Amino acid sequence: MNIHFILVEPAVPENVGGSARAIKTMGYSSMRLVNPCDHLSEMARRLAHASNDILEAAKVYKNLEEATHDLDFLIGTTANQKRSSKQDFHPATELATILSGKAGALQNVGIVFGREESGLTNDELQLCDIASSIPLAAPYPSVNLSQAIMLYAYELSALQHFSRKPAADGTPVHEESYAALRQKVDALLQITELDQNPVKANRIRERLALVEQTDLNLLHTACAALLEKLGPAK
């Protein structure tokens, strides 16, 4: 499973440099930037220290949709749950367990961090499968961008030691992808016109993101059968 750290419109070069350092320290290498500040500036490089390779390899995009088009699963981070479009919020400490539960269905996972001053918009957070936050003893002073990335990178580093078990006979276990299941569910929402109710449809997608591998495979079978009976979406 590959983890990609996505920074949306970071405004402070030092934060980008510190984030690169945090990512590399925890054994990761992929950083994606959406409309960033000068992430190759001297100040960014100074904070990156021995992680300038992460800065130089960072891919730059115009918007979050473009930055995440090839990813299977997105985690949006937020510090303000009251104005969020999501109903469930998962502490950073729970993410490794959530992802390992469906590891066979995921190849590329993105964790999205918002702007230093305002975070992610509701529309951006709605693009994510689940929302996560860092429990704080006091709301102020809050952690800054690079500190938040260090905390998440540390928690997710447990995934690097996770390996899928083969079947009893030693052969690799074939798993259907989560992205493919999400497409099937989206098609069913359209056929049944449940997508006409955004609140209900988004809630279904949000809960789907928490289903573990065994149930994902069952849902693939059930959704495929329903689609065959109901016919294609119009």
Describe this structure in words.
Helix content is 41%, strand content 14%. With 234 residues, the chain is of the alpha/beta class. The protein has a seven-stranded parallel beta sheet with strand order 3-2-1-6-4-7-5. Strand 1 (2-8), helix 1 and strand 2 (30-34) form a beta-alpha-beta unit. Helix 8 packs parallel to helix 10. It is elongated, with a radius of gyration of 19 Å.
Quick summary of this structure?
41% of the residues lie in helices and 14% in strands.
E-strand count: 7
Q: Give the termini distance in whole angstroms.
A: 35 Å
Overall geometry comes to: elongated
Provide the succession of SSEs. EHEHHEHEEHEHEHHHH
Number of helices: 10
C-alpha Rg, in Å? Answer: 19 Å
Q: Overall pLDDT, averaged?
A: 85
Q: Which structural class fits the helix and strand makeup?
A: alpha/beta
Ranges where pLDDT stays below 50 over 5 or more residues in a row are: 163-174
The amount of beta strand, in percent, is 5-15%
Give the fraction of residues assigned to helices: 40-55%
Task: Name its key features.
single chain, 41% helix, 7 strands, alpha/beta, 234 residues, seven-stranded parallel β-sheet
